[in-house]
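Friendly challenge for the regulars: who can give me the structure tokens for this chain first? No prize, just bragging rights.
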Amino acid sequence: MAEKQADKKRSLPATGSNPRGIPAAPFVDNVADYVSSRTDVEPTLRSFQEMVSKYQFMEVNTQRRAQGLQEKIPDIRKTLETVRFLKVRRAAGTNEPIQTTFDMNDTLYAHATVLPEDTDEVFLWLGANVMLAYPIDEAEELLEEKLRAAEVSFKNCEEDMEFLREQVTTLEVATARVYNWDVVQRRKEKAEGKDEESKGEKRRI
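First reply, four minutes later:
Bragging rights claimed.
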């Protein structure tokens, strides 16, 4: 009966989760309430270790996503600034061509002259080798939306990584508590065994 109750406790979902749905680790306040007997210690410790591995796996993936966003956000911001610059020039009615340099690759650049009549629309990379032409106003709106979304995603990644680290720490503390509780129980059982043995010897005498 005690084993069934212990299994039920371990199968219960962790209480609460963060805004992205990552479940919180169980907080073990009283080990005796969480682990009903010493036979439950090993399964409990294994369960904690599995949860730690899952949290660490999610942390690595979240960190990679955050790094990708860190590289992506400056590019979006730079493109948005360029589109706004072209929009301001069009609004001012400037007829002078723009002398500029295009970054083709890390070490490859191309000089170009951009005429005012060529700034009615811009071409934006959308990913997966796809480029589309957008009117200036639509391009600005699209880039602003992409920048906001990327910044929110990056902030969420930072919050998730902090949350995941906290859950790992919680599980490490829980593991230490369960392990120490088990050590104390072993010592008690050993001491009780010696007492029983001593009483038996006295009866025989």
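The longest helix spans residues 136-204. The radius of gyration is 31 Å. Your move, everyone else.
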